[in-house]
Amino acid sequence: MSRRSKAGLARLWSAIANSLQEASEQLRRLTEEAAPVLSVEEGLERLREGNRRFQRNRQCHPHGDLRREREVVQSQAPFAVILSCADSRVVPEILFDQGIGDLFVIRIAGNVATPEVLASIEYAVLHLGIELFVVLAHENCGAVHAAHEAVREGEDAPHLSALLAQIAKHFPQEAREELSSNSLAEVNARSTIQECLERSPLLKQRQREGRLLPLPAYFSLSDGGVYFLPDPAPSIPLVHGTNPTVRGPTVRGTVGSGENSGG
Predict the structure, then answer these.
(1) Rounded to two decimals, what is the model's pTM?
(2) What fold, for 38-228?
(3) Cis omega (within 30 of 0) on the bond before 36?
(4) CA-CA distance, 43 to 49, in Å (whole number)?
(5) Which of 103, 132, 191, 236 has its CA 20 to 30 A from that of 73?
(6) Nearest residue to 85 via CA among 153, 230, 182, 180
(7) Contact partners, residue 157, CB within 8 Å, separation at least 6
(8) CB distance 182 to 139 below 8 Å
(9) Does the pLDDT value for residue 157 go beyond 50?
């Protein structure tokens, strides 16, 4: 091998080593121990940043190994509680690019607020000190679609029928014919937030004190974006970014926006 070839090879290896070092440093920053308490703003931005990485297929998969599991054996300090659907396509830790101990996740079909779900949220707020609470709806939700179509599961599935009824009660009668199932998924997320606040004195009090931020959000299976829904709600819900006032990690020109328009 000529001297010139050796020099070129050395430069190549040096560039590779530098790239690996930069990647390692980025991963270290993501996986290092978080501060004991993240502010709501910091937690929300962390969710947005993680979702941007997911959308770009540049996930870092932080806190995903046995070492991290051992770090949190004695205690946990998640920075957000996420109530999401049990749908196999909607995994908050993945779509927000978070890991072990980062999120307190509750999953149930249709992301409804059963007594057990409410108890879990109260535990996260009261005992873990979480101040960021997200109800995450999603595109093509089977439970919302079934509730929209007034599917009856029959006497052999009374629990499922009861769950669908709990979703359906969130749909204004006049909206059933006007809105798609995806738009009604947004309605359901908003209504679940409201129901949690109405049924839990703890959550309502924390919100009044500015110690709890409840946010409805919508996950688009089509583009991978999580869209935080506007407040107050528009008269006609529009899905994942088609409404120009939607606040989300990938909506241009809004609070915490990213690169994509999300339309």
Answers:
(1) 0.76
(2) Beta-carbonic Anhydrase; Chain A (3.40.1050)
(3) no
(4) 10
(5) 132
(6) 182
(7) none
(8) yes
(9) yes
